[in-house]
Design goal:
13% helix, 32% strand, disordered N terminus
Length: 467
């Protein structure tokens, strides 16, 4: 036995362990790991776990240490306070076993889903011909625009994806792992008269392939004629001195309110120390006129050093914006760190606390703040711990879903689900989960036909849900 190669000994151990703990290990992996590393260990927002090159070692002891204590200066958090040693060991065995026998998790969409109020028909409009679809916005009853995170803008016409992308849109800085790149798209409220389309993306003047390139989120508008992006105008770009390298959490969701103001979000770009600094764009929600001018009644107009487009601050990474159909208030979803995902109602000039107050911890398990509340800082309408990686937000005002009227719908990335939230005032009354474990829910829109359109990642698809 002492002549056997170490990896062969490991495989014997794995086969024994799998018979005892295999089912538990696969459930643990799906619950805690798949959101970042992929359902089949193929990689996602974090690295693949089936590979030859293990930078931090591939022995069972090193795997155990890295899962339990995390890896400094990476996004690999410490799980020792969440998982028992036995659970971590079963995960280690599961990962080692997968090197020879990779799991296969089929991602097939059901034809129907049962919810509390409706039996939904699920129509798969687009699948496997998009790459990380990020935002969808309808131009009219028959046409919608879809952004792809690596930097493409596409038409969907009569529920079919146009194979030809729009030419001439800005080059985007894709920092990898589904971060950065081209994000949201918005349509001007007067599109029929002016044709303006708005894009949010990460920009750099440096090397598009280099992680050390200085970059920041930008907002532009342009028009589309014959599959070509023309008449581009730059609406928002912070001074180049405020650009950052090796950033994450760039935002960015776009929304027009009823008065025609354009709102957009920028995350903390992995620099939480700037979230409370009004001279930095990090961790803010902004409000501008459609042509980029600053509204005179913005809360920090005239304040020395402040970026006058700022509307709220202390928002770690808001990736969902929606208008309440009755009150007109803007509700925002916000990514927490490890725990502390939030929904907030935006108030002019308000401070939402990050990182002074939070319900979450750092990804390595360290304390961000001992405080969850402080004077002068807003409390969330609801918070989720553990984090569901809440992303899009969309209120329902659809005539074909009358029972859902004024309910808020949010999508989750890591938890791969839609949540329906009936609200009363600023209180969430309940939460119903559906479309579970069928992909990372990136965007939600009730279309002109009243149907609920869903963008999912892994698999990359566009779904249409109707009663």
């Amino acid at each position: 036995m002492n002549k056997l190669k170490p990896i062969f000994c490991l495989m014997i151990m794995v086969s024994l362990t799998t018979s005892l703990f295999g089912q538990e290990a696969s459930v643990l992996y799906k619950t805690y790991c798949a959101g970042c590393h992929g359902a089949n260990l193929e990689g996602g927002t974090s690295s693949a776990l089936i590979k030859e090159d293990w930078v931090y070692g591939r022995s069972p002891g090193l795997f155990f240490r890295n899962i339990k204590h995390g890896i400094d200066s990476t996004e690999m958090i410490a799980w020792g306070q969440v998982l028992s040693d036995g659970q971590i060991r079963s995960l280690v065995d599961y990962i080692i076993g997968a090197q020879e026998n990779p799991p296969t998790v089929e991602r097939s969409f059901p034809k129907s889903i049962v919810t509390e109020a409706y039996n939904l028909t699920v129509e798969v409009l687009v699948k496997d011909s998009l790459e990380i679809p990020w935002g969808i916005e309808f131009v009219d009853e028959n046409r919608a625009l879809i952004t792809e995170q690596p930097g493409r803008l596409r038409w969907m016409v009569n529920h079919k994806l146009d194979p030809q992308p729009i030419l001439g849109i800005p080059k985007v800085y894709d920092t990898g792992r589904g971060l950065g790149g081209l994000m949201d798209v918005a349509i001007d409220p007067e599109y029929g008269e002016n044709g303006w389309i708005y894009l949010a993306y990460v920009h750099t003047e440096g090397d598009l392939e280099a992680p050390e390139s200085q970059a920041m989120t930008r907002i532009v508008r342009g028009k589309i004629v014959d599959h070509r992006w023309i008449e581009e105008e730059l609406l928002f770009a912070p001074d180049s001195s405020l650009e950052l390298s090796r950033g994450t959490r760039w935002g960015c969701r776009l929304l027009f309110d009823r008065e025609g103001y354009l709102y957009f979000t920028i995350g903390d770009v992995d620099r939480e120390e700037f979230a409370q600094d009004l001279s930095r764009p990090n961790a803010k929600v902004f409000r501008i006129h459609p042509d980029g001018r600053i509204p005179e009644d913005n809360p920090f107009v005239g304040q020395a050093g402040a970026i006058e487009a700022v509307f709220t601050y202390g928002n770690r990474n808001a990736q969902g914006l929606s208008i309440h159909p009755t009150t007109g208030e803007i509700w925002a979803t916000e990514h927490g760190p490890m725990g502390g995902d939030e929904i907030n109602v935006l108030k002019k000039g308000a401070n939402y606390g990050w990182p002074v107050i939070t319900y979450g911890k750092h990804y390595n398990g360290a304390i961000v703040s001992e405080q969850t509340a402080a004077e002068g800082m807003e409390q969330p309408v609801v918070q989720w711990t553990p984090s569901i990686s809440v992303c899009p937000a969309e209120f329902c005002n659809s005539p074909i879903f009358p029972t859902w009227k004024n309910n808020l719908f949010v999508g989750a990335l890591a938890f791969e689900e839609i949540r329906r939230l009936p609200v009363e005032g600023h209180k969430v009354l309940s939460q119903e989960v559906f479309l579970k474990n069928l992909g990372r829910v990136r965007d939600l829109k009730f279309g002109p036909d009243g149907a609920l359109y869903v963008l999912v990642n892994r698999p990359d698809a566009v779904l249409r849900l109707v009663p």
